[in-house]
Amino acid sequence: MTSGRYLLTGLTLPNGDKTDIAISDGKISEIAENLSAAEGATKVDLAGSIALPGLVDLHTHLREPGKEDAETVLSGSMAAAKGGYVAVSAMANTSPVADTAGVVEQVYALGQSAGYVDVFPIGAVTQGLQGENLSEIGAMADSRAKVRVFSDDGRCVFDPLVMRRALEYVKKFDGVIAQHAQDPRLTQGAQMNEGEISSRLGLKGWPAVAEEAIIARDVLLADHVQSRLHICHLTTAGGVEIIRWAKARGINVTAEVTPHHLLLTDESALSYDPIFKVNPPLRTQKDVEALREGLADGTIDIVATDHAPHPAEAKECEWQEAAFGMLGLESALSIINQTMVATGLMNWEAVADRMSYAPARIARYSDHGAAIKVGAVANLTLINPTQTLRVDRDLVASRSRNTPFHGMDLQGSVTATFFKGHPTFLNGKLSAIYEARNPSGGR
Ligand SMILES: [Zn+2]
């Protein structure tokens, strides 16, 4: 049984101020030092933790409907809560594809009943992700799921006329097209980054230009029709340069980078372990440095996980046969602390922006991405930056175990997640908001 009142003590706000935070009835009721607990409040000692606005992920593969052996909306929501997230965007490449109002409403409802995070479905741009005919974009936007982000992610919208029409269509309701920038002709059969290591291993290379050419084309298209474009998982130094150029010209483009592309390089492939096989591929150290710089200076707007669960048989095989993708939700914030904050490239205010404010703003999630203040919905992510996260694939909340960070000690560990005033993750335990509303259980 819970009163819905909490007193979180020993925190530091993104601006460096020390504070306690009181929560009552789902909202932040007080922010000050040395608060005393209200009657019936649960006191939570979080000494050493930074308090961030609840994290929002714009790029999550929850695999339901259709691939529930890899992940479900419930298991993916639990992984999200454990990683400090309060909202995730479910990619459309499910089975059936989320290209109708019916499917997006189903995913939205599954998220609501799971009760760990808000699950916002992303709609497919084209029917069946086939790249030819536009999906029911308007019906998905008008549905109960109120879809504003559309993407064929996993595939590139390659036909420039289809891309143009999609960009034009979403203007009606302030939507955005999230492009997986990958020229399919230049990457046919590609297995990893094209470079010295791919030639040494004899694996077919994936050239940087296959990504950059699409980004360049689409920022020009977005400019031409005056619509909003978002570039998924940027991986190359050249891509960062194009986004920087486009923004300088006032083009309405935003971009994301994944934690794994900020930490790992194509040298990981030397292990021949397909745990490191991902789309788009891990690039070079020079690219990693450009991505870090781009995220720090705001050229890259957000961090997005591209959490991509796969069952063991899809990853524990030969490199050539293995599926592309890796888990991301449970380790994302630790990796951002390690690569961006501990290195002095970014402060916590910038982390709050890249992982909460900006993703919520791009996707128009109006109940998310608000600064920590009295009266705001108590969506909070707490991280202790000096604690170590030992990643263990056998202990993940996700239904899959394809984390490339298994056995690594990451710097910084999520200590708690509060979603609408309820601790979805605390003291190493997960708890759904649904259970709090109905403590007698039964679902
Ligand atoms: Zn993608």
Describe this structure in words.
The chain is α/β, with parallel strands linked by helices. It folds into two domains: 5-51 and 376-388 and 407-437, Roll (Urease, subunit C, domain 1); 54-363, TIM Barrel (Alpha-Beta Barrel), CATH 3.20.20. It contains 13 helices and 19 strands. The chain has helices at residues 73-82, 101-114, 137-142, 160-170, 196-201, 208-225, 237-248, 259-263, 285-297, 312-315, 332-341, 348-363, 433-437; strands at residues 5-12, 18-24, 27-32, 42-45, 50-53, 55-60, 85-90, 118-121, 149-150, 176-179, 192-193, 205-206, 229-231, 253-257, 302-303, 380-390, 409-419, 422-426, 429-430. It has a five-stranded antiparallel sheet with strand order 5-16-17-18-19, with helices on one face. The protein has a five-stranded parallel sheet with strand order 9-10-13-14-15. Helix 6 (208-225) packs parallel to helix 7 (237-248) and helix 7 runs parallel beside helix 9 (285-297). The mean pLDDT is 96. Bound molecules: zinc ion.
